[in-house]
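Quick check before the chapter quiz. The format below is the same one you will see on the exam, so make sure you can read both the input and the output lines.
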Amino acid sequence: MDVTILFAVFIGGLVLGIPVAITLGLSSLAYILVSGMPPVVMPQKMYAGMDVFVLLSIPGFILAGNLMNRGGITGRIIRFANALVGWIRGGLGLTNIAASMLFGGITGTAVADAASIGGVMIPGMKKAGYPGDFAAAVTAASSTVGPIIPPSVPMIIVGALSGISVGQMFLAGAVPGILMGLAMMVTAYVISVRKNFPRQDWQGAGEVLRAFGGAFWALAMTFLIIYGLLSGLATPTETAVVASIYAFFVGAFIYRELPISKVPTIITDSAVSSAGILALVGFANVFGWILVSERIPQAIADGVLSFTDNRFLVILLINVLLLFVGMFMETIAALIILFVPLLSLAQAVGIDPLHFATFAVLNLMIGLTTPPVGVCLFVCAGIARLPLMPVIVAIMPFLLTNIGVLLLVSYIPALATWLPSLLTD
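Here is the expected output.
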């Protein structure tokens, strides 16, 4: 009966459109009250969920991304990407994807990528003669690459949940992220050729070098983050702080596009975003604790294993479940609730934890662009000033491409584990 109340309030909140964090909190509180537990259990479990040292890196990376975004990075990244691939048929679509691959590695969040890149690229593509639905679709689809390529907020969450090194998680996402970006470029090119989308003239190697020079300090930030983690010189939290200081210095004194007067507002906005994420982590931890206490994860694992213990079929079932969940639930909440029970199931059939963590995050990133409530779809449709349905139709080829990459990563473990293995050898 108590579990029924938990799920009834949770599903009811989602149906009513209540934010996921609040829905998790309300359903957990309802369970605690109905079961006769003291309400003080809720803040205790929330604090336990947030009291994880590595989570302190999240505010730092969010602040670094906001500082770089306000400090002139977006335009320079787009210029560099355009110099590289803008001359190909459908070049602005390819530029959009390349910019997301470069820019997303700095912000670490898909929504920030969609809003920042989309705010520049979607109007620019429409002005150049691209259909608005295609411009919105390619922006939404490519924004999911950012949280795969390091640094990545979801990867930090997974590291906190599983005990896997955050540095290893970052490396594990690099190859799948690059594969996803290249696959979407091929898809965008094929669509562009079929529909005769415009192309730009080749601007010469000189423009490539000039654009690289302009974007160098922005691109170097990703190297700084990865080197700091992999060299052992800094923890993820310390690396995030260094990245924030670096972002401020570059934006204010090298690019000179970050007014000092705007810094307090940027810090406030970053704090609000970070607080929202950590509140979600806290509420989701209470919900996850309830599921564990009711042995729901064990029941799921036993149910699947009673049906099949074939590793390949279990991987397929996990993918289907996570893709479905990703359609309706925010990524971090889904990770906190489902990651640990599904990890137990994966390990029971011999799946490497690092491999599982990588394709689990990849699943939920794809969910951000999957109807009906893919957040990035709404962001890009809003920027393009279009109804959601045309954007959903236009994004389907990219969704199929991304699912194809997901299956490759799911069934070829080396795509996720090869780079981290180099670190440990």
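If your answer matched, good. Residues 1-39 form one domain.
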